[in-house]
């Protein structure tokens, strides 16, 4: 189901009287990638608990969830099954657009990282996106709406003309990054390519028959890979937990910079990954990787999505899509 359809149905539930979560609980959702290292550190060091306690909260609960792609996460947010979600910028923009001016308005909290994701393929004949044919299949977290799917549309618009921005959409298949990696390496289901995420994109490239067709930085330049968002209602009803979350992200971001190897180990422990610590540490410290709360290139996504009709509204600036606590950052 397309995110627009899901959002429409779930949004009606959300504004129609869904009971808000108890103020003593904060439920956080992440996806399958290394774009959420702050969350791994926050879990390990109980940072939300630390800052919530400092604010006088005594009886509260912090719980964690994992979803594949923005469709499932945004549906969970709108149906009040979770409180704070995280993912690519298009997932935030979609709900910001859908909920403007309502009692369940959604905005971004902060960014988590800036790093490229790679479109890899096992087809030796594909040198650029112009070489994809009707028999090729590209695994993405969610068709049409994931950050990978939207970047593929942006690349298609540049290659084939803006009116053909959706030219490659029929080739995409919704798959979790681990499943897309397995499918591409085995050829299962005809999937021979994957627009993926770290560390899976680097696992793919360890195979001699896999090569990179496109980097998201080729399309956008440096951009936010992961951001966190929530509803204005949750922020208003739970100010202490909201502030504790922001403080926890800030400390976790500093911890990543100070101890990348320890952070890599926390990701391995949290996800049960079998990757060597050295490999994960190299990803954490990648030359194009920045762990930062500052949003980057969000307006490029917003302008494109409005231009092709995916959304109805275009923000005047990135600050319109985020809550004011990070308004002093040099975002874009």
Summarize the structure.
With 332 residues, this protein is α/β, with parallel strands linked by helices.
Textual characterization of the structure:
This protein has 332 residues and is α/β, with parallel strands linked by helices. 42% of the residues lie in helices and 16% in strands. It has helices at 3-15, 37-45, 47-54, 70-78, 89-99, 147-160, 177-186, 200-205, 216-220, 232-237, 239-258, 260-271, 277-284, 298-307, and strands at 25-30, 61-66, 84-87, 106-114, 118-121, 138-140, 172-174, 193-195, 211-215, 224-231, 290-291. The strands form three sheets. Strands 7-6-8-5-9 form a five-stranded mixed beta sheet, sandwiched between helices. Strands 3-10-4-11 form a four-stranded antiparallel beta sheet. A two-stranded parallel sheet has the order 1-2. Helix 1 packs parallel to helix 4. It is globular. It starts with a helix and ends in a 25-residue tail after the last helix. Mean pLDDT is 91; it is low at 1-22.
Topology readout:
Layout: H1 3-15, E1 25-30, H2 37-45, H3 47-54, E2 61-66, H4 70-78, E3 84-87, H5 89-99, E4 106-114, E5 118-121, E6 138-140, H6 147-160, E7 172-174, H7 177-186, E8 193-195, H8 200-205, E9 211-215, H9 216-220, E10 224-231, H10 232-237, H11 239-258, H12 260-271, H13 277-284, E11 290-291, H14 298-307
Parallel strand pairs: 1-2, 6-7, 6-8
Antiparallel strand pairs: 3-10, 4-10, 4-11, 5-8, 5-9
Helix pairs in contact: 1-4, 1-5, 2-11, 2-12, 3-11, 11-12, 12-13
- Helix and strand composition category: alpha/beta
Tell me the distance between the termini. Answer: 31 Å
Spatially, the strands of the biggest sheet line up as 7-6-8-5-9
Give the count of helical stretches.
Answer: 14
What is the ordering of alpha helices and beta strands? HEHHEHEHEEEHEHEHEHEHHHHEH
Major sheet attributes:
5 strands, mixed
How much strand? 15-25%
Fraction of residues in H or I helices: 40-55%
Number of strands: 11
Poorly predicted tracts of residues: 1-22
Task: Assign an overall shape.
Answer: globular
Question: Radius of gyration from the CA trace?
Answer: 19 Å
Report the mean per-residue pLDDT as an integer.
91
